[in-house]
Amino acid sequence: xxxxxxxxxxxxxxxxxxxxxxxxxxxxxxxxxxxxxxxxxxxxxxxxxxxxxxxxxxxxxxxxxxxxxxxxxxxxxxxxxxxxxxxxxxxxxxxxxxxxxxxxxxxxxxxxxxxxxxxxxxxxxxxxxxxxxxxxxxxxxxxxxxxxxxxxxxxxxxxxxxxxxxxxxxxxxxxxxxxxxxxxxxxxxxxxxxxxxxxxxxxxxxxxxxxxxxxxxxxxxxxxxxxxxxxxxxxxxxxxxxxxxxxxxx
Length: 250
What we know:
Layout: H1 18-29, E1 36-40, H2 46-53, E2 57-62, H3 65-78, E3 82-86, E4 98-103, H4 115-128, E5 129-140, H5 142-148, E6 151-156, E7 160-169, E8 174-183, E9 203-204, H6 208-216, E10 220-227, E11 230-234, E12 240-247
Parallel strand pairs: 1-2, 1-4, 2-3, 4-5
Antiparallel strand pairs: 5-12, 6-7, 7-8, 8-9, 10-11, 10-12
Helix pairs in contact: 1-2
């Protein structure tokens, strides 16, 4: 089955790393607990809710109504204070308002049909940050993709086995992938051997050099880049990289 945009992702293996990923954000940014955080393309709010549990003031945005509804229900059930917005992350109205902006698990970076539309998200990130504020994005590395794709990846969680296949379109710098989630205890159904046509456009990936230029044009400067959600691991050409930048000017 393909559960990329449904609430079935709550059982995916990578969800089980949420606390460690939030630990990474706090350590990488040197947060003290009083910062105001904007989580863009938050999904069902796993990082935002964990930050709220730790006392942070969090605003979340996602375009998928079911994700926002589920995150809101979790916050209500746990008595967490989180502000929810359902809509396009590129159209958020915030200006000079946040100490931290997050784009975790891609955070919709590179998801749009054209490079021009993708850059609109970077504009929104820069607008939302206060001078001195910090941004973290967790994205796939174009350098890794160019060197290692096509490739397959699997990860076993406590509820599901997650399978993914990756391809690379060098002409457009876009990653094309398909995924399957195999839930334990359920019969294995036949899986198609073709990539879904809706994914033909792929996800735009960036090198660190490209990100340095894009962010610099918007008054942001890369402070560090890591791999594996570990501040002791440099990004280099790791499949997943976490890029930390700060807002230096308007």
